Amino acid sequence: MDNLGIVFLSELVGTALLVLLGCGVVANVALAKNKGFGGGFLMVTIGWGLAVFSGVIVSYNSGAHLNPAVTLGLVASGATEFGSGVPVNVVSVLTYIGAQMLGAIIGAVFCWLAYKQHFDQEPNQANKLGVFSTGPAIRSYGWNLVTEIIGTFVLVFVIIAFGGGRQGVNGGLAALGPLPVALLVIVIGTSLGGPTGYAINPARDLGPRIAHFILPIKGKGSSDWAYSWVPVVGPIIGGVLAGLVSTALLPILA
């Protein structure tokens, strides 16, 4: 298998695991008759952080982006190659994003299988959709977009800093592996996640939303496509802005 094939498989598996565990903790909290039912938002944020930890662990061969906003943020930062040693070009970027999207759909399908009986017995359509995708506490598309931009900016900016800037000065905190990223996701959730549920990842939201749309979920209702653009566009803008700002504010080599 060539390098791009390894990258594709690595990102697909990592993102699938991320979404399986992340959507899984939401299902445990939101769907009736689960042992974790009513566990609350803190349980969800911790679960998502550890889901990111697990996804990063298994996708080391690709540099563990698991998020189009991270991939595009690195491009915007001026990186010439990704952590896997793959050169940055149109083909490699599309490979990363395609694998992330497909992996997110697969992870969401496996989450549904794990909780199939609970989905069947859940009367609330919003709870079912909430397992798969985010939704705002107060629907205001402009302000919801701002929240997603800010949250994703923090995510990508700090991730680039973990690596010591786009040129990897002094190795940054990357040697600590996935733990810093997991803690970062938890703090973003607890600090900035309340207004929108903090997608901060286009694949994490759109992939499972597609799965919700195509799966034969009993009484599932709408997939809320009217809101679906916000957790895609917001994170992309936030990630690209973080990459651009990092070139000025983070250590780089001339």
Automatic annotation (TrEMBL):
Compartments, as annotated in UniProt: Membrane
Residues in coiled coil: none
Keyword entries, A-Z: Membrane, Transmembrane, Transmembrane helix, Transport
Main location: membrane
Membrane topology summary: Multi-pass membrane protein
Transmembrane segments: 6-29, 41-60, 93-115, 141-161, 173-192, 232-253
InterPro entries: Aquaporin-like, MIP, MIP/Aquaporin, MIP_CS
Pfam families: MIP (PF00230)
Family: Belongs to the MIP/aquaporin (TC 1.A.8) family.
PANTHER family membership: AQUAPORIN OR AQUAGLYCEROPORIN RELATED (PTHR43829), AQUAPORIN-9 (PTHR43829:SF9)
Protein name: Aquaporin family protein
Organism (species): Cryobacterium glucosi
